[in-house]
Fold:
Amino acid sequence: MHSGDAWACCLATGRLCGSKHGKVRHNGFSFFELIVVLVILSTVLGMLAPNLRGFFFAHQTHEKALHLMALMRHARSQAVTQGITHRLTFNLADRQYILQQQVDGQYVSLGDSLGQTFTWPDTVELTFEADVEQNDPIYLIFKPQGTVTPGKITLKGQDEDKGYVLRSLTSSELYALSSIQEDEKKNID
Structure:
């Protein structure tokens, strides 16, 4: 049988024709083998799911803390280099924050990707403490002299013991990022 004839035979009958010794070769896994593998995988994933969930929420909190830190550093450097006051606004009710600059006495968006409105997820709780009386929304003002509104921003995930603190004790101090445990240890010492 020619190779073209064997191919036509395969298409017509759904079997491999003309193979050695008349045996049909099966490539791949049987349906039963696939079901066993799926059951094993689902069991393993079911056992890991609670741990992965905690990791995901912790990652979200850490990611937001790093993002806020980056925005604060950018706001301070732009305020100093451009000589323009910048403001980071937190709207606690809507779970949003935005970086703006002062133009002709009004705060306007930066007009780039850093000037958009950002949100934090429902799984992250954000609180702000400062000596200055502020209600919702909260403003951190970055002046051209390099000063900033001092305070403490706490980001907590669903695990109350885990989270991050962004803190500036004085108006001339940069905000620093630390874990809640590190921040509590500093306050005890």
Notes: DSSP finds three helices and nine strands in the chain. The longest helix spans residues 31-82. The domain at 60-188 is CATH 3.55.40.10 (minor pseudopilin epsh fold). The beta strands are 86-91, 96-103, 106-109, 118-119, 125-129, 138-142, 151-156, 163-168, 176-179.
